[in-house]
Structure prediction request, 330 residues.
Amino acid sequence: MRVNETTTGRTNQEGRRPYEARKPQPRGQAGGNRSAQERARPTRYDFVVELKDLIAVPNIAERLRRPVKSDKVLGPRKDSWCEFHEAFGHHINNCLSLGYQLDELVKSGFLKDYLTELATTVAVPEPTEDQAHEMPVHGEVHTISGGCSGGGPTASQRKKYARGVNSVDEKISGDPWESDLVFTRADLRDVVPHDNDPVVISVVTAGRKVHRVLVDQGSSTDVMFWLTFNKLRLSPDLLRSYTGCLYRFVDNLVEVRGYLELRTTFTDGAASRTESIRYLVVKANSAYNILLGRPALNRLRAVSSTRHMKMKLPDLSGRVIVIKSDQEEA
Prediction:
């Protein structure tokens, strides 16, 4: 009796009998509730290395969800081997499971350093008026400003610097030994994918090799921290007095102990370049030993690239010195 009542209510609600056959759906509409991953194949990208080498990179391997090993042939091609599944049946270039995961990593920006220039990019739409909103501003964030940039701390030094700049004719050709500094896809082959790491190198100064030297294009001066100064066993008598001001990232003053010039060597093992760098010695906490700012970079004619994790500069013979960033130190 309960079954009859339930059936009657269903007939009145749906307007048809419970055993009425459903109308056939047009072909292609069935399975409309499938996920987008099942309906479409993953986007194929061009990488600077082969897929079997790409998935062997430690940082990438950690983010991949490895499938369970199986003795079955996973696909119609019995002679094709997939390094991702470690099984026969299909080639790794046609592996859908790997393709979906690589597609997610590319869209998140994790694999951008391994993409070739021919890779497909996704444009980010501009926010609409409904999405745009104003944020309250509580302060300003700056880079390091002040220091020896512009000639020096005193007005006479800055005037002398300005007269010298205005009187020098620009040489478009540059020095005879100056070389073109170009970054190519070949510079990406030894780069481990990273989350926007800075360029951190090592230099030789005061007879010691100094690690954790940050290449900082936003700094108006070359900075050596007081702890590093002491580790180099330099005498405080070498410091010259500095009467100017140095501001840090949030407009607060930094205690300046003085400045000194040190012969600093930049080398990639095959060639080297030594220049006299004027360091402003400051007493402040930092994760780095030295900040290499714009004065040193301009003096060296050096160019750095955070994407390629390298700094390039010419030596006096015209050869290009390529200094790789220490990504572990960064």
